[in-house]
Specification:
about 400 residues, Rossmann fold, 2 domains, 6-stranded parallel β-sheet
Length: about 400
Amino acid sequence: MQRVALLSLHSSPTEQPGGGDAGGMNVYVLSLAENLARLGITVEIFTRATSENQPAAHPLGERITVHHVRGGPTRRVPKEILPALLPELTESIHQVLENLPGRPVNLLHSHYWLSGMVGLELAQRHHMPLVHTMHTMAKVKNHHRADAHAAEPDARSAGETRIVHEATRLIANTPAEALEMERHYNGFLDRIDVVAPGVDLDVFSPAFRASSRAGCHVATSAFHVVFAGRLQPLKGPHVLIAAAALLADQRPDIPLDLTLIGSKSGAEDYDLAALISHHGLSEHAVIMDPVEAKVLADWFRCADVVAMPSSSESFGLVALEAQACGTPVLATDVGGLPRAISNGRTGLLLADRDPQRWADALAALHDSPQTRADLGRAASIYVQRFSWEDTALGTMASYNRALSLPRE
């Protein structure tokens, strides 16, 4: 295999994670591309053009090119209207693939269901295999959603079902995710490869907490809790705010300091600033815009705990990144988080998103600095097993299985 096309149509891997539709998948696609290139693979990344100023093709390295292809207006649009743009995106990518100089692309790897739908059409046209990574799944998200939050559309569930049945191979982050594909979509486990994501250990690494706090202007005495991710119900920052309110009421002796790093995602009415004000937490909680990885690592290092009150996570890269900085993670026991976190050793997993349960867990961690230190030390060691090079090698093995199958 010499050349692969990665489809990441609804969000460019070069965008800043933490807001809009940009999140862990962006980190995943870019890190995978960089490590495939180091292994000698030429990588063509396709994403939807969102600005007239974007070049049609932008080299990211010796073997990586990002193609900004046309599909609908050249501006950001709500993810909900993207399905209507898929035919145009398919045609745009087809034309690029037809005219690429040098050796042809011989495998497609799609990320998220919108790219998967385009990938199915292109795989048929170009007689090449399609490998697909879900990242998140509609039926799983709907299974865990609260009644007050919008369900994923039926078109997405139907599209994902088709992808599961028609893609040459599927990649899951964890064995649990593979079982979810089989359970919710009648998938076939013998076509699913389990490949764990990695973490950039050059960026996310331990340092002295006191010096990190000085750089982030966090008081030495504060019990500092950090959330990082898209500000949407799925990720649960509202749960953390509710828990903080209970903690402030029940344990006023705890000098709580809460930092939420991210920006609003999705069309739902989700005003966290108003929620913070409603609970009287304006002096204890702050919302920050997304930051680049090196700055995010500083915020993880200056935290006592990183919180992930998600209702669903295919893996949870934030958990790896925080632990790599030597900071324990408090998270919901869902999806891939039990794989990313060693419960009781590198962090703590909670059974649900009940705010009182979260308040109690935060209080217990505050009251035991030695436990936090022990968890943090173990966390920085535990994540050494997760590297993007290993992710690339596992992905290449999946590619080779797909290429070994006869094509019609």
